[in-house]
Amino acid sequence: MTAPRVRAWHRVWGGMLALSVLLVALAQQFPQLGGFPTGLVLNLSDWLNAAVTPAFEAARPLGVLLSALAETPLAAIRSALAWAPWPAAILAVVLIALYSGGWRLALFAAAALGTVVAMGYWPKAMNTLALVLVSVPAAVGIGFALGALAYRFPRTQPALIVMLDVMQTWPAFGYLIPLLILFGFGPTAGLAASVIFSVPPMVRNTLVGLREVPPAIVESALMAGARPGQLFWQAMVPSALPQLLVGVNQTTMASLSMVIIIAIIGGFNDIGWEVLSAMRAAELGRSLGAGLVIVLIAVLLDRITRGFARRGPRVMQARWLLAGLVLALVVALVLSGQDLLPGEQGQRWLRRIDGWLLDFVAWSAPFFAVLRNAITYGVMLPMRIGFSGSASPMVWGFALTPEITAAYVLVSAAIALLLGWRSPQRGIIAGFAALLFWTGLPGFPWPGVFLVVGVATWRKGGTGLFALAMGGLALAGLSGLWVPMMQSVYLCAVAVLICFAIGGALGVIAAESDRFSAFLRPISDTLQTMPQFVFLIPALMLFKVGEFTALIAIVLYAVVPPIRYVEHGLRNARADLVEAGVQMGATTWQMLWQVKLPLARSSVLLGLNQTIMAALSMLVIAALVGTRELGQQVYVALSRADAGAGLISGAIITCVALVSDRLLRSRSSIHRKVPE
Amino acid sequence: MLKKYVTVAVSALALAGLTSAPVMAAEMGAAGEPIKLAMLEWTGAQISSQIAGKILEKAGYKAEYVTAGNYPHFQGLADGEISASVEIWLNNVGEVYPKVLAAGKVEDLGTLGLKTNEGWIYPKFMEEICPALPSWEALKDPACVGLLATPDTLPNGRFLDYPADWGSRAATIIADNNLPLTAVPSGSEGAMLSELRAAEAARTPLVMMFWAPHFILAEVEVGWIEMPVCVDQSNEHCIMPPDVNKVVWSGFAGKWPAAYQILKDFRLSTEDQQKMMLAIDEKGQSLDAVTTAWVDENEAIWRPWVDAALN
C-alpha cells in the first residue's frame, strides 16, 4: 500500500465532521439545536385529514361495489371449505401435493394438515385459506397486468419500481383507516391491504420473465406470422412461465404474512384472529399452535407452488390427479354433515405450554435479569442517551466531570487522527462514531442530521434521492415526529448491529458445514413465517415491557437475512480465488477474513439491506411491547381513527427504508437475485 | 311480507285499544334476517355477546356472531354491518365512537350491569416486601420504590401504564401526588398480562394500571392500591369505575323492535361473567357450552325480558 491519497470527498466529509463537532458543542448552549424546534411543528395530520377523509368518503360507493365483488367469491369459497369434511379436503390436498412435488411432499401435507386438525384449528385454518385463495388470484392478476404494461411501456418502469418499493415498505397499519373508510367494516379492507402488499413480487417477476424471453423465440414467432396478441400470449408468456410461477409463489407468501393485518379489523374468525386473541390473553400455547398453522400452510403452499414451477417428470399423470379429486369429492359427499372434528383435547394440550413457560420464567428470572441489564446499560442506553447521558451516577456510577469530558475528547481525537493517518476514510468514520457515541443517536443535533444525510444522499444517489431524504426529514420535523423517528432509527440500528453479529456468525458456520446449514434452514423458515406476535409473549415475560423486548422481537425476525445472504455469498465465492488462497497456505481464519468475505461483499451488502428492511417492517409490531417510536405512533393513529397521522408516520418509515435501501444499493453495484 | 307486518301491527293496535293494556308488545320485525352481534377480542365480551344472542334465539330471532376488533368495529356498527355490540367499555372507545354517536348512527342502550373497577394493582406477595401496601403511601417509601426501579426509569420506580393508544392519566396522578414513579406505556393488553404472570411466577415486584372484571384476576392474586384523594373529579386526575354499555346500530329498533326491547333489558352480573370466564380460560371449556349452560340454568332471569318484549 502506498501513502493514502486525500481525495475531494475526504475533504468534504472532513469538513462535515468538523461542522458536526461544532454543532454538538453549540447544542450544549443552544438547546434548539438538539431536538427539532417545537415552534416549527405544524398541524399536518389535521390538514391531511381534511383532504383525505372526504376524498375516501366520496369514493365510498366504489368501495361498496368492490367489497361486494370481493365478498361474493369469498363467501362462496368459505362455505365450500366449511362444507367439505376434513378427511376429504386433506385427501384432495395430498393428491395435489403428490402431483406437484412427489411422495415426500404428499407425506408432509398429510402430516401437516393432520396436525392442524388435531390442534382443533381446522375451521379457522379453512377461513384463512379462503382469504388467501381470494387475495392471491387478485394480486397475481393485478401484478401480471402491471408487469406486462410496464414491459410494453419501458418509460414507466422507474416510477413503477419506486411505487412497488413504497407498497412493500409502507406499514399496512398506517393505511388501514382510509381503507376502513373506503370499504367499511369487513374482510375487504384487510384483503385490500393484503393485495397492496403482495402485488409487488408478481410485478417484478413478470418484468424479469418477459425481459428474459430469448430473442430467438420472439423472432421465430414473428416469422411464423404471429399477431401482437398471439406473440404475447402464445410465445412470450409460455416462455416466461417459470419466472411467473416464482412470482405466484412469492405473492402467496406475502399474502399469508398479511393474514394478521386482516384479523386486526376482524369479521372473519380466521387463524390470524386466533393469534391476535391469544396474544391479547398472553397465552403462549394457543398462539404457538395458531402460529404453527400459519407456518404449515405457508410451507405447504410454498412447496406446492414451487413444485408446479418445476419442469420435469411427475410421479403421477394429470388424469390420475383428476380422478383422485373426483374421489375426494365423493368422500366429501358421503361424509358431509357429520361432525368429525376432534374435541377440545388439542387445545388443552396447547394450554399446558403456558404452565411450562411460567416454570421456566420462575427458574430463569435472575439470569435473564442480568442479561437484560447488561445489554441495557452497555449497549442500549449509550446508543440512546450517549456517553454524555450515560456518564452519571445513576447509570454508570460516575459523574460527567470536566476532566472526563476532556479525556473523552482527547482519546477520541487521538484515535481518529491515528486512524486517519493511515487512511483518511477510517479517521473520518472514527470521528463520527466518537461523536455519535457522545450524543447518542436520538440526541444528534438536527441540523447535523440534515447536513450528513443531505451530503450522503446527494453524492450517492443524486437529486432524486436527496429530495426524498430531505422531504422525509422535513416531514418528521414539521409533523412533530422528530424524536420518534430518531428513536426508530436508533432501535433499528442497534437491532441491525446485533443481527449482523449473530446472523453473520451463523451464516459463516452454515457455509462451512452442510449439516449445520440443514439444521438452520427450518429454523429460519419458521422465524420468517411464524407471526411475530407469538414471540412477543415469552420475550415479555423474560424481559418485561420496554425497548429491550422490542429489540429482541426485531432481532428474531431480522436475523434471518444475514444468515441466508452470508451463507449464500460464502458458498458462491469464486472457486479459483479460494483455491489460490489455499495454495498460498492461508489459515482458515485468514481464508475467511481476507479471501472469502471480501469476495462475498456484494451478497453481504445485499443481506445488510434486507436486514434493515426487515427491522423497519417489525417496528409496528414491536410497538405492542411498549416503545416510543414511529410504530407506536402508527398504533395510536389507528386507535384514534386518525387517517392523517397514520399516513404521516407510515410515510416517514417508508422514507427511512427507501433512503437506506438506495444508499446501500449504490454501494453494492452488482445486483444479485435473492437466494433462498 | 310487509303486508303481513302491517296487518299484525294494525291488529295489535286494535287489540291494544280494546284491552287498553299498559305496555304495548313490540313487533318481531325482520326475524328472518340474522342479528349480527360483535364478538370482540376479550373473553368477557364474547360471553356477553353469546348470551345475548342465545336469548334472542329463544325469542325467535337468528343470531350471527362476527369477530371484530374493538376500534374498527364501531365503523361496522355505524354502517349496520354489525347490528349490536353488548359490552362496550366507554373508557376505551377510541375516537370513532363519539363521532358516530353524535351523528346518530349508533344508539346507546344503557348499562350492561357489570360492576366494574379500575385502578392500580400489584401481585399480592408484594405486601411482604412493601408492608405499607395496599395504601398508596407505600409508593413513597424509597425501599419499596427501589425494588420497582429499572434501568429505563432510574432513580424512579417503574409504573406499568395502559398502552399508549388507550389514553392514560397515570402521569397526571403521579405528578399530583409527587410519587417517585415513571409511567411506562405497556403497548398491549397481552403485554400487561405477560408481565403480571411473570411477576407472580418469578416474584418480581410490579405495580400497574388494571381493570375488573378480568379473567387474569382469578388466576393471579392481586391487591388494589388505596388511591390518594383526587385533586379534582375530572377524568384526567381521578380514576372512576368505567361504564360498560350496550350499543346498537341506529336502524336496529326499526328492523327488530322486540329484539331492541330485549337488549335494552339485558343485564349480566359480574359474578356470573367471572365464573364463566374462569370456566373458559382456565378450565378450557368451550365458549358455546358454557354460555348455553348459563342460558339453560337462568331462565328465571331472562324469561321476563323476552316476555315483556313479546307479550
UniProtKB/TrEMBL annotation, chain A:
The keyword rRNA processing does not apply. Its main location: membrane. It is found in: Cell membrane. The chain crosses the membrane at residues 75-98, 105-123, 129-151, 172-197, 254-276, 288-305, 317-335, 356-375, 395-421, 428-458, 464-483, 490-513, 533-560, 604-625, 645-664. CDD domains: TM_PBP2. It comes from the Bacteria. Keywords: Cell membrane, Membrane, Transmembrane, Transmembrane helix, Transport. Residues 125-305, 485-664 form the ABC transmembrane type-1 domain. Pfam families: BPD_transp_1. InterPro entries: MetI-like (IPR000515), MetI-like_sf (IPR035906). It is a multi-pass membrane protein. The keyword Mitochondrion does not apply. Belongs to the binding-protein-dependent transport system permease family. This is ABC transporter permease.
UniProtKB/TrEMBL annotation, chain B:
InterPro entries: ABC_Gly_betaine_transp_sub-bd (IPR007210). It comes from the Bacteria. Residues 34-297 form the ABC-type glycine betaine transport system substrate-binding domain. SUPFAM superfamilies: Periplasmic binding protein-like II. The keyword Signal applies. The keyword tRNA-binding does not apply. Residues 1-25 form the signal peptide. Keywords: Signal. It holds the Pfam family OpuAC. This is ABC transporter substrate-binding protein. It comes from Tabrizicola soli.
